[in-house]
């Protein structure tokens, strides 16, 4: 489900931690096999990807189903850890968990610090606007001088700040972002196109979909560098799940279409 603000510093620190952790460390595959569990981090507040059921308190969503599939096929029990997005990569670097399954966009700065699985989600950045706002923003450049809500530490925050001239407001989660949008504290919000479709379907707020304002993005599962056996095993699980239709079935369950393949 993502660096301006403090993320450049955080990634630099993460890179140092991740590099140090590689020295004399056993491959992650051997570690998790010996433990019998796979420690999986996610936000837990990012429907329909990962969130807690209001009645049971249990985690559910697309990422949760993918994570359970991966753990099961590795012969492991999933152990979920929920954490705020802004600190999730630093937590991975410091060894608090083994992987993140939370719509982490694969991009060059992150690949300096972490290895990634093959992509399991494809989407694009999309604007969300108030229903009564008839303005059409065809690109991020068109938002110069406007207030734009984004997830703290997300790739969308990085993209918005890189565009220049936009008053970028960071939020810990989508609900707070959209509430401020609905009452006019910000002019638009920027999020994942799949997340946008879900929010518009389930929210009672007076919001609507805006334009898609970027290229297709790939999300994968990051883990600390120096674990080639784990990487090979993880990618085999994802390849097998794609070949036998399991990933497609999870996608269709949550989105009505296969988001695990490039458009």
Q: Could you characterize the architecture of this molecule?
A:
The protein is α/β, with parallel strands linked by helices. It has two domains: 7-122 and 219-255, Periplasmic binding protein-like II (D-Maltodextrin-Binding Protein, domain 2); 125-212, Periplasmic binding protein-like II (D-Maltodextrin-Binding Protein, domain 2), CATH 3.40.190. The protein is 39% helix and 24% strand. The chain is built from ten helices and 16 strands. The strands form five sheets. It has a five-stranded mixed β-sheet with strand order 12-11-13-10-14, with helices on both faces. The protein has a three-stranded parallel β-sheet with strand order 5-1-6. It has a three-stranded antiparallel β-sheet with strand order 2-3-4. Strand 3 and strand 4 form a beta hairpin. Residues 1-9 and 20-24 have low confidence and may be disordered.
């Amino acid at each position: 489900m993502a660096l301006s603000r403090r993320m450049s510093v955080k990634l630099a620190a993460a890179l140092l931690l991740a590099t140090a952790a590689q020295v004399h460390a056993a491959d992650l595959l051997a570690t998790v096999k010996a433990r019998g569990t796979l420690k999986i981090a996610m936000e837990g507040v990012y429907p329909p990807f990962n969130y807690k059921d209001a009645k049971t308190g249990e985690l559910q969503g697309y990422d949760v189903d993918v994570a359970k599939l991966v753990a099961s096929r590795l012969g492991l029990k999933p152990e979920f850890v929920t954490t705020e997005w802004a600190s999730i990569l630093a937590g991975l670097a410091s060894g608090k968990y083994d992987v993140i399954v939370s719509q982490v966009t694969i991009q060059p700065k992150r690949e300096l610090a972490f290895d990634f699985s093959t992509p399991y989600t494809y989407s694009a950045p999309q604007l969300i606007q108030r229903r009564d706002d008839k303005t059409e923003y065809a690109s991020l450049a068109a938002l110069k001088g406007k207030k734009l809500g984004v997830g703290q530490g997300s790739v969308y925050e990085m993209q918005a700040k890189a565009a220049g001239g936009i008053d970028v407001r960071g939020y810990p989660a989508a609900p707070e972002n959209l509430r401020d949008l609905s009452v006019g504290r910000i002019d638009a919000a920027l999020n994942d196109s799949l997340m946008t479709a879900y929010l518009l379907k389930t929210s009672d707020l007076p919001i609507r979909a805006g334009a898609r304002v970027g290229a297709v993005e790939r999300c994968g599962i990051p883990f600390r560098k120096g674990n080639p056996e784990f990487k090979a095993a993880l990618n085999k699980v994802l390849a097998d799940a794609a070949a036998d239709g399991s990933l497609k079935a999870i996608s269709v369950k949550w989105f009505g279409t296969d988001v695990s393949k490039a458009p």
